[in-house]
């Protein structure tokens, strides 16, 4: 049986393509048993474990997406904490001064891989 719609080709170990992460936005992916948030600004992509340091729950809303604001910060849907793209530092909210756990990534040929 064949399908009329093929899945995008993905390279072994890849998390996704850079273009799969909206510029100024986020995408949640699975890396083994871990949920990882990828955020992008232009060609730069950062990765963080999807766990709020305030209450150790995921940052995402009911639909699973992580909210972003003006391509600068991610927002925890549960407590409205704001985290910078560049370093995951909480700049406002109940966990101010704490940071998301980084998930290092690298980009090769337009594809995002674990570093």
From TrEMBL:
Keyword line: 2Fe-2S, Iron, Iron-sulfur, Metal-binding, Monooxygenase, Oxidoreductase
N-terminal signal peptide: none
Keyword Hydrolase: no
A GO MF label: 2 iron, 2 sulfur cluster binding
PROSITE patterns linked to this entry: RIESKE
Stated name of the protein: 4-nitrocatechol monooxygenase
CDD domains found in the cross-reference section: Rieske (cd03467)
Domain Rieske: 13-114
């Amino acid at each position: 049986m064949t399908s009329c719609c093929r899945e995008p080709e993905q390279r072994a170990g890849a998390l996704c393509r850079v273009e799969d992460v909206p510029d100024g936005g986020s995408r949640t992916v699975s890396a083994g048993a871990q949920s990882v948030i990828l955020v992008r600004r232009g060609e730069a992509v950062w990765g963080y474990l999807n766990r709020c340091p305030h209450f150790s729950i995921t940052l995402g809303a009911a639909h699973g997406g992580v909210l972003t604001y003006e391509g600068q910060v991610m927002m925890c849907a549960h407590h409205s904490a704001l985290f910078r793209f560049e370093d995951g530092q909480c700049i406002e909210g109940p966990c101010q001064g704490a940071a998301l756990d980084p998930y290092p990534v690298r980009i090769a040929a337009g594809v995002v891989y674990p570093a």
